[in-house]
Amino acid sequence: MRGVSEPIQKSGRLVLVRHGQGSLGTDDYDRLSDIGWKQSQQLGQRLQSDYGAFDTVWLGSLKRHQQTVEGLGIEANRLVESDLDEYTVHDLIVAALAQADELGLSVPDESALANPKEYLQTFLAWFPEVLGHWQSGGLTCEHNGLWSAFFERVTRPLSDWERRVRSGETVVAITSAGVISTMASSALNHPLSWQRDCNVTLYNASVTELCLIDGQWQLQTLNCITHLQDRNHQTLA
């Protein structure tokens, strides 16, 4: 789902950016890998090229969000919003494995779960099923709470951002795949099946743009990584 950008317009827009690559397979995923830092630098060059100077960057409170902003090399105010924080994937997986039998949930081979970096495609193919059970209310997760609460939290900034975009402002937000896919599906009135597919196909440091046309959110760019020309920098996790 690599996006193709349309010509940049002068009107305001909402720019949703996924953080650079985290450190999957280590004891602290929530920090950028060496590739993640390089992705952030290239992302910063793209943002400056497309939008020039902008005063503010919205970001979640997670370390990988903050480090991505640091890597941009852009002087801008940082507005840290915990509403933009991701659900915890590990806790969803633990809950899913514990409830797999009662949910009728298929479970990948143990080797895939033990080594997610090596078996990333297996995990990405399986995880939408986990999300679907959480979204329907079948999967309970004490740490992440209810899907409905997550949905309400991450879509909360949209009303303020819509007002800003209407006034011609470009809003740039650095966050995570689950947040971006949920925001976009809500704004565009897409079904949760679209959200789940989008969630697992968003590249690190990808750009998704929405604009307002006749008062309605429209998708301008989805999951665009044209600024990551080195294929080794085009990562899903």
Task: Describe this protein with a few key phrases.
Rossmann fold, globular, 43% helix, 2 domains, 237 residues
Description:
The structure is a single chain. By secondary structure, the protein is α/β, with parallel strands linked by helices. It folds into two domains: 14-87 and 155-233, Rossmann fold, CATH 3.40.50; 88-143, no CATH class. Helix content is 43%, strand content 14%. The chain contains ten helices and six strands; from the N terminus they run βαβαβααααααβααββ. It has a six-stranded mixed β-sheet. Strand 5 (207-213) and strand 6 form a beta hairpin. The radius of gyration is 17 Å and the shape is globular.
Present the secondary structure layout.
Elements lengths: L13 E5 L15 H18 L4 E4 L3 H10 L4 E4 L8 H10 L1 H4 L6 H5 L5 H17 L10 H9 L2 H9 L4 E5 L1 H11 L4 H8 L7 E7 L2 E9 L13
Parallel strand pairs: 1-4, 2-3, 2-4
Antiparallel strand pairs: 1-5, 5-6
Helix pairs in contact: 1-2, 6-10, 9-10
